[in-house]
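Feature request disguised as a bug report, sorry. It would help if multi-protein outputs had a clear separator. Right now it looks like this:
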Amino acid sequence: MKKLKLISFYSLMSATLILNGCGKDGVGLNIFSVEDDKQLGLQTKGQIEADPAQFPILDPSTHAEAYAYIYKLRDDILNAGQVTHKDDFNWEVKIIKNDDVQNAFCTPGGYIYVYTGLIKYLDNKSSLAGVMGHEMAHADKRHSTTQLTKQYGVQTMLDVVLGKNQGLLSQIGSQLVTLQFSRTDESQADEYSVKYLCPSKYHADGAANFFQKIIDQGSATPPAFLSTHPNPDNRVKNIQKFASEGACSATIDESENTTDYARFKSLL
């Protein structure tokens, strides 16, 4: 991997002093640049796709119809006009074949991975759009690299972005797949999932449907997507509140939302 680029030392110190540890999104200081996020994401993509035993990714060439469906959904989210880094990040989507995992994640730089277990568990297209919007928000709001800065400290991350600790860089790439976000990060991703979907045709509170289904079934082992913080019940209420406050109104035809989605699931 080529050396990560960084803003100048003086710019970093000025940002630290002026912001007093608070990034532009209000979730903490982030020593990484947008370009660094892209490079970290590219490295993580390489590590994921070099491990087919753990991440059995469906081949886009042999599952072209399924990928066309999920890419169209992604494009609908991006083209709604609310994603800050729409043109900065790659926003590549890959489907991981594992029906036992109800999860999705998005690396820095916008590499999105969705498990077949999650797709098959959801009941409609708006729910998948809500979950994807949530994961895309983690990348768009740059939560991963903010958490890394907080976890390892400014000096250690400064060494990494200057290319002085390549061993840690490889470790970080693996860690990004399972990185735990803060309560603030999760709440913000829920909120921005609604904001991304509100101008689109989808039900803006789509992500709440997933949480509610888990709650209704009383699962003793909720999927990784359900962070222990904030409480799932509160997340449903907050997502629905965001949608209500935004006066969001879905225009998607219900046959597309449910019938077409069922056909998409059958492709997997």
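(second protein starts here, but nothing in the output says so)
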Amino acid sequence: MQSKKVHFQNAENLSLAAYLDLPIDGKPRAYALFAHGFTLTKHLKAISHINRALTSKGIAVLRFDFTGLAESEGDFADTNFSTNVTDIVSAARFLEHEYEAPSILIGHSLGGSAVLAAASDIASAKAIVTIASPCDPSHIKHVFADQVEDLERDGHITINLGGRNITLKKQFLDDVNGANTCAAIHDLNRALLIFHSPVDSIVHISHAQRIYQAAKHPKSFITLDRADHLLSDTADAQYVGKMIASWADKYLPAREMDMDAAGHQTRVRTGLSYYTDIKSGGHGLTADEPTTLGGSNLGPTPYGLLMSALGACTSITLRMYADRKGWDVKEINVYINQEKRHAQDCADCKEHPQKIDYIERFIEVVGEISPEQEQRLLEIADHCPVHRTLQGQVHVETALFKPKTTIST
């Protein structure tokens, strides 16, 4: 995932700070907009994990700080739920003018309530996603429930959230009390996906039920099992990102089978961890290392991808051959193991022990075929292009590549 730092103006001409997370080749098939929760920021780890999963599928995501938070200008005390909604609309306008109008709106916690309210002013959005979001914005009052009377009397209060002192004014309370997202949900007329955990201690899962009941089809609900409100577990955030990408796929433009801007067929990028983004033929993939080797185990190893390529090439080659012959082959399964073994036939093994790659390939053919046909398929397997590449001479030419432009990470 590549991240580009950007700024845009909100309705009050204040500069809001944002990151545009981009696919590895910088050529998104679609854009999404992510709104964080109450007093949170664009730096929330869960947002980064979700966006990484989305960018791997070719979806760029703009995440920003609401007015008065983190790097954005303004006084948070002067903001409320309504200003959050207008900030989202401003972010969508920025994407539309500078890049492409967002096709997906995603909101976490109160940010989810805000994207539901903002959707009516963002015609480009085909799909809406809420994560642990309250149906009623006034639910946020639970954060300062013991100070509501003070807020009513004094007109302002200071609350401590995550070690930060936050000032709220009475106008914030009046605004959330007057917000009516139920009408917005009913009139949404977009595809809606709702994520919520049954053990969320901040926003009860009954809010997800109310959102679902208020919405019209198409609508979907995915439970987050044991996840907490902030999706602190990386696996939970990755799961949300992958599910959003899969669900939204039908509402997005088809992937283009093109090269990147520099004319490369495949592009691979590894950042500060072993997690690696891959784009090949318009499709996003990932690679990683197991936790025992310092990785996060969020994707196959490079060798796992290589063996996958051999297996896929084998089964596709056999499928083509069986179809051409008209044989009754219903399914082909390929099982592969790879390891390093000591070479037994090298002339100087005793003085200089060597290891070679040893690959076991087992092929299962499901269908009504004869032993002779099975034997022929085994012979054909050795003719799969990847197999021939692995056993043939391969020349890899390596040179330094210096792109004309770079994007900050």
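Even a blank line would do. Unrelated, but nice: The two ends are 8 Å apart (CA to CA).
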